[in-house]
Design goal:
By secondary structure, the protein is mostly helical. It has two domains: 2-215 and 268-438 and 495-530, MFS general substrate transporter like domains (Growth Hormone, Chain: A), CATH 1.20.1250; 439-494, no CATH class. Helices cover 73% and strands 1% of the residues. It has helices at 16-22, 24-32, 41-48, 52-55, 57-69, 73-80, 82-102, 106-121, 123-134, 140-168, 173-176, 178-192, 197-212, 216-235, 245-267, 281-310, 316-321, 324-340, 346-364, 377-398, 407-445, 453-468, 473-508; strands at residues 2-4, 528-530. Strands 1-2 form a two-stranded antiparallel sheet. The longest helix is centred in the last third of the chain and has 39 residues, at 407-445. It is globular, with a radius of gyration of 25 Å.
């Protein structure tokens, strides 16, 4: 074992704010590209001649590739250095983006999206690690506030940006827009980011040990297990889950692969993914809560645009804009929460965020088709402040006790669990919404019968309206029945939304007991102890 002072003598000075801005470009692009494509899928499908089932692989391939790389960030950083990993990932992401725009067949586009995902997967964890190593201990909250804004803004503005580009230009430009932004970020990173000397020394020592004990089995098992897991979440809802042979096979491969992977990583001399970091109760509790938090975030980011488009009949661009009050609230609140982190224990800030989210979800559970867009602003602002109170202290506390040399490992694991949480939340809440809507339609249909006078009166009123507009008696009767059926369907959809939002708020309250383990000591200026793998 060796002890290295955090402030290494002779290290070149860096401008921490320039570093933060430089490495924000890559993470922002990667997070935007996880959602920007979704609104363009109908256009891409029409041009490439793909089926609905096939076209979903454009998003699935990107997410699987991205998730696979996240846990390997620390391993790659040990071999090549964190700055090199970030730069290589940026280059791969930029090249993948350029190729995606030129693709004219579905297999080519899916392949290029995999390239994009492999590049984008390492960007967020590496950014988080570099920020933690650049900013002093007393400014870690501010550093993670900047990281939070980048990670949380991406999924919010992705659909809006994608809708605008698709409506006004053509779908390849959702990929081409990454090129100038990526090149600027690449040049700024080369100029401004300097890897700390103590981290470089630890990485070199770690790489020497890893070369002699390369964990190839761990890499293979992780790719198999995690790849099957992400496929399960991405494709399960569309394939009716275990009614599909492919999903049953994916589930079996996922369970066996992940179990063998965990056993391998806990017994390997130099594991490719350092699962022992979960021994730290602060890291473990913060990561678990982040899992649930991102599940809620991605679930609500799916539900609200769907509600806007299906029930309020908004366009894709306007429905994406509905989320902007939440995004703006996050941006405004995050710096304040980052400063508050230095004077208040994170578990209290997180607890306040949990309660705020529950209140915001309760308010959203009362929306109807008559709810105006203006009335939606306040509950969205409440949940935006809640997510700022959750994300910033959780990201900061998760790495509070982690050695500088293991920062990339911990950040990669944290990002991986958070991303899986998003996939789980999207899957669960989309499935719940569908099931609740079916139940609501069945329940409402039982009460819509011609044996009830009010139903007969409503049908008669609709028939008279149709006759006044030129329909004959038969056409008017059919039109009235269809209109009543559509009204029932719309009301069932609203009831389903309300029920899911209420469930979200109640479910999140169950993380409050975990806050007992979220304890961060207020210690600054001490030496950093670095434990090398294999020691």
């Amino acid at each position: 074992m060796s002890v290295i002072t955090a402030a290494t003598a002779g290290r070149a000075p860096v401008n921490k704010w320039l570093v933060a801005v430089s490495i924000a470009f890559g993470s922002l692009m990667a997070s935007i590209d996880s959602s920007i494509v979704n609104v363009a899928l109908p256009n891409i499908r029409g041009e490439l001649g793909a089926s609905i089932q096939e076209i979903t692989w454009i998003s699935t391939a990107y997410m699987i590739a991205m998730v696979l790389v996240m846990p390997l960030t620390g391993f790659l950083g040990g071999f090549f250095g964190q700055k090199r990993v970030y730069l290589l990932s940026m280059v791969l992401f930029i090249i993948g983006s350029a190729l995606c725009g030129t693709a004219r067949t579905l297999p080519a586009l899916v392949l290029y999206r995999v390239m994009q995902g492999l590049g984008g997967g390492a960007l967020q964890p590496t950014q988080q690690a570099i920020l933690r190593q650049t900013f002093p201990p007393e400014e870690q909250g501010i550093a993670m506030a900047m990281f939070a804004m980048v990670v949380m803004i991406g999924p919010a503005i992705g659909p809006v940006l994608g809708g605008y580009i698709t409506d006004n230009y053509s779908w390849p430009w959702i990929f081409y827009i990454n090129l100038p932004v990526g090149i600027i970020g690449l040049m700024m990173t080369i100029q401004n980011v300097i890897e700390p000397e103590d981290v470089r020394i630890a990485n070199r020592a770690r790489a020497e040990i890893a070369k002699k004990n390369l964990d190839i089995a761990g890499i293979v098992l992780m790719v198999i297990g995690v790849g099957a897991l992400q496929y399960l979440f991405e494709e399960g809802p569309q394939d009716d889950w275990f009614d599909s042979t492919e999903i049953r096979i994916a589930f079996a491969v996922c369970v066996i692969g992940i179990l063998l992977f965990i056993i391998r990583e806990l017994t390997a001399k130099v594991p490719v993914v350092n699962l022992r970091i979960f021994k730290d109760p602060t890291f473990a509790s913060a990561t678990i809560i982040s899992f649930v938090m991102f599940a809620m975030l991605m679930g609500s980011m799916f539900l609200l645009p769907v509600f806007a488009q299906e029930s309020l009949h908004y366009t894709a661009t306007i429905s994406g804009l509905m989320l902007m009050p939440r995004t703006l609230a996050m941006m405004v609140a995050s710096p304040f929460v980052g400063r508050l982190y230095n004077v208040v224990q994170p578990r209290f800030i997180v607890g306040f965020g949990v309660i705020m989210f529950a209140i915001g979800s309760w308010m959203l559970s009362h929306i109807t088709i008559d709810t105006s867009s203006r009335a939606m602003i306040f509950p969205l602002v409440v949940t935006g402040i809640a997510f700022a109170c959750l994300f910033v202290p959780l990201m900061t506390a998760a790495l509070a006790k982690i050695d500088r040399s293991q920062m990339a490992d911990a950040a990669g694991l944290n990002s991986f669990v958070r991303q899986i949480g998003g996939s789980v939340g999207l899957t669960i809440f989309a499935t719940m919404f569908t099931n609740y809507a079916v139940e609501a339609r069945v329940g409402l249909a039982a009460h819509i019968t011609t044996l009830r006078p009010e139903v007969v009166d409503r049908l008669s009123e609709m028939s008279r309206y149709a006759i006044l507009h030129g329909a004959n008696a038969g056409q008017a009767s059919s039109a009235a029945a269809r209109a009543l059926g559509m009204a029932m369907y719309q009301q069932a959809t609203v009831l389903s939304f309300d029920r899911v939002f209420m469930f979200q708020g109640i479910l999140f309250l169950f993380v409050l007991p975990i806050l007992f383990f979220l304890r961060v000591p207020r210690i600054a200026g001490e030496k950093v102890h670095i434990e090398l793998p294999g020691e």
